[in-house]
Structure formats: C-alpha cells, structure tokens
Amino acid sequence: MFLYEGASGAKTTILLAHGAGAPMDSRAMAAASGALAAAGLRVARFEFDYMAGRRGGTRRPPPRAQALIPEFHAALDKLAPEGDLIIGGKSMGGRVASMIADDVFRAGRIRGLLCLGYPFHPPGKPDQLRTQHLVALETPALIVQGTRDPFGVPDEVASYGLSPHIALLWLEDGDHDLVPRKRLTGLSATDHLATMAKAVATWSANLRRPAGPGASG
Length: 217
What we know:
It is built from six helices and seven strands. By secondary structure, the chain is an alpha/beta fold. The protein has a single domain (about 5-205), classed as Alpha/Beta hydrolase fold, catalytic domain (Rossmann fold, 3-Layer(aba) Sandwich), CATH 3.40.50. Helix 1 (about 25-40) crosses helix 6 (about 190-205). The radius of gyration is 16 Å and the shape is globular. It starts with a strand and ends in a 12-residue tail after the last helix.
C-alpha cells in the first residue's frame, strides 16, 4: 500500500521510505511529503513489514538495513509512476534506498536518490560509519541534512570522501527531522522543509538519464 501526495500527472515521482522508529504516516514523513508535493512533485510513501504490528499495539525492532533491501525492491516493482522516478527515504529508509540505487539506476529504472537525514553513523559513535557504498555511488543523489543532526554533522561528513555524484544540502541548525530551533535561527520546520522541497524540485528537474539498459532519450 502506498500513501500518495501530489498531482498524479507530475513529471517526477519520489518513492519514499520511513525511518527506523517511525512509520510512513509519522508527522515528519507527512510534513516532508506535503512540502515535496507543494513543490510540484508526486510522493509515494510505503512501509516496511516490521512496522505492521504497531496497528495491533505491538512493535518489532527494525531489522538490519540489509534485510530490508528485498522489501524496497518489492515496493519499486509495485509502483507504476507515470514519469521519472526517484527513490529515497528518511534516515534508515534513505540508507536502504542508497544500497539498491546503483543497480536500479544502471537498469534505467530511476533517475536519482533522495535522502532526508542520512544516518552516516549512530549517534555518539562517529567511528561506526555507514558510508562505504557512498564513496563510489554512481546514482545522482541529494542528501538533505541538518547541521546539528547527531547522525552526521558538516565537519564529519566533509571528511568522508563521498562520491562526486552526491550533492549535500545543509539546513542551518536542523536536527534529524530537519527542524531548527526557532529562537536561535528565526526559522521554523516549515521554512526548512520548503527550502528542502524547492531544492529537490530544482535538482530533480536537471537529472541526467542513466546510460544503461532501459534508458532512453
């Protein structure tokens, strides 16, 4: 099942997965999806199976990101976008998307990768990096990160040697949900999400097509 936002005839659809601890209809996911839709993009949210128990009052801990790869592929197979497709997600959802991105990009199935608050490392454990596959990433990618995100701040990320195909958008004082402290910045979560969505719309409009099988034009 997908949760859709945005016009069905939009040029670009984003298949968006949730983070480890919050479902596809969480406040943060709904706010990000709404902002993207307002910027002219179509968003399709989906949920990993381990979240199903929450509706019955129980929750299972998230599996390792690697174990969720088949579920992301299954969602991609079920989706039938009318135009171009970008895959991505919030936090862990974006990480899983990044792990399959090159395979489906080379096959001509997607145009890019969008990560909202990428979990570069667990909070407080900067040596436990989750970046090895990002060094040689071929898929055009945009990572949107708050400057006080405990999963990766600017000085840390600058040292990782990420692929030149990855663009970074830093949102001042944003946390892992991209929310700034208004008393310090004068900005709200709505302001940051609007900036994010505008950047995503501009970035996606300029994405190149892959040269692999399935590519055209």
